[in-house]
Write a structure and sequence with these properties.
Blueprint (H helix, E strand, L loop, with lengths): L1 H14 L7 E4 L10 E5 L4 H14 L4 E2 L8 E35 L2 E35 L4 E12 L7 H26 L7 H9 L15 H13 L3 H14 L4 H13 L3 H14 L4 H15 L1
Parallel strand pairs: 1-6, 2-3, 2-4
Antiparallel strand pairs: 4-5, 5-6
Helix pairs in contact: 2-3, 5-6, 6-7, 7-8, 8-9
């Protein structure tokens, strides 16, 4: 994506005063260990910057997000683009009768019988309407400066959102960074712990054994975290396993009740199962949690229309 490359070059020019072309090296996400300050660049899209920063700070509250690139140790560059294409055509057929009935009626007791013939025509009208799909693509890079005019790329990211129940690329970018940062720093802590003596007293061992609980009853969906259930639900939904998808999305909502995406996805499946009342409640909650998500509002209108019919 040319826009992302331009932002990257501008940012590199901001943090280096050299007139020479920058030297780009390639590293590993593990180099994020011991990093405490980052800078997020999304070009002129301030709202996108705020959302990525919020997602990262929610999981990494001790990580400092700097206002100036020169104060940061690591730089995150991200931008999105979207395109709309024709996904298909829907057809609606309506019929109208025009004619008359001729004959006579005869009454016997409480019953009336009509004998006659119907003359007329039935007119059918078919209306076709195209429907479109919007695909949002996000590209990002994570890098750090290792010298006066040298930079090291530690992560590259590219993702597309093709379906309305999928997570947006900017959320996946923030999530991947959080996972890479957490793993890099956890690996470092694990190495430090490995160098220390590990002992467990008999009393501690007994306490640990007594605290083991019996496994829960086996569910129709795997035991995962909230996002795992959400991903499982999307997979099942794409396989037309609607009932199983509903169960997975319900678990995602149970484990993370403040996540608008999970409520929206559950509402989408409930709508597919014609449970319009429940579907409306779930998507209404998604709209309250994420009022700026236009797709949630549109789907809420569709569900309400389905419920009226």
């Amino acid at each position: 994506m040319k826009k992302t490359l331009l932002i990257l070059l501008i940012l590199i020019g901001t943090v280096t005063a050299s007139a020479q072309s920058p030297v780009i090296e390639y590293g590993e996400p593990s180099e994020l260990n011991a990093i405490s300050k980052i800078y997020i660049n999304t070009g002129m899209d301030f709202e996108l910057h705020q959302k990525i920063a919020k997602d990262i700070q929610k999981k990494l509250p001790n990580l400092i997000i700097c206002d100036k690139p020169e104060d940061a140790e690591v730089f995150l560059v991200f931008n999105t683009d979207s395109e709309t294409f024709l996904a298909g055509v829907s057809s609606t057929t309506t019929s109208q009768d025009s004619g008359y009935l001729s004959g006579h009626a005869s009454t016997y007791g409480n019953s009336t019988t009509i004998n006659g013939t119907y003359s007329g025509n039935t007119t059918s009208t078919t209306t076709t309407s195209p429907f479109y799909r919007k695909v949002e693509t996000g590209i990002g890079h994570v890098f750090k400066r290792i010298g006066q005019n040298r930079f090291r790329v530690m992560m590259s990211f590219k993702d597309s959102r093709k379906w309305r129940f999928e997570r947006k690329p900017r959320s996946n970018f923030a999530r991947e960074f959080v996972e890479a940062y957490s793993k890099a720093n956890e690996d470092k802590k694990g190495a430090e712990r490995a160098q220390q003596p590990q002992e467990q007293t008999r009393e501690q061992s007994a306490k640990k054994s007594s605290s083991i609980t019996q496994p829960a009853a086996q569910s129709s969906v795997p035991i995962l975290n909230a996002e795992g259930y959400n991903q499982e639900g999307m997979k099942l939904f794409s396989q037309q396993k609607i009932a199983e998808a509903e169960a997975a999305f319900r678990e995602a909502v149970r484990l993370d009740t403040d996540n608008a995406l999970y409520h929206h996805n559950l509402g989408t499946v409930l709508n597919a199962r014609q449970k319009y009342g429940e579907a409306e409640k779930e998507v209404e909650l998604a709209v309250r949690l994420a009022p700026n998500e236009e797709i949630y509002r549109k789907n809420l209108e569709i569900i309400r229309a389905n419920r009226r019919h």
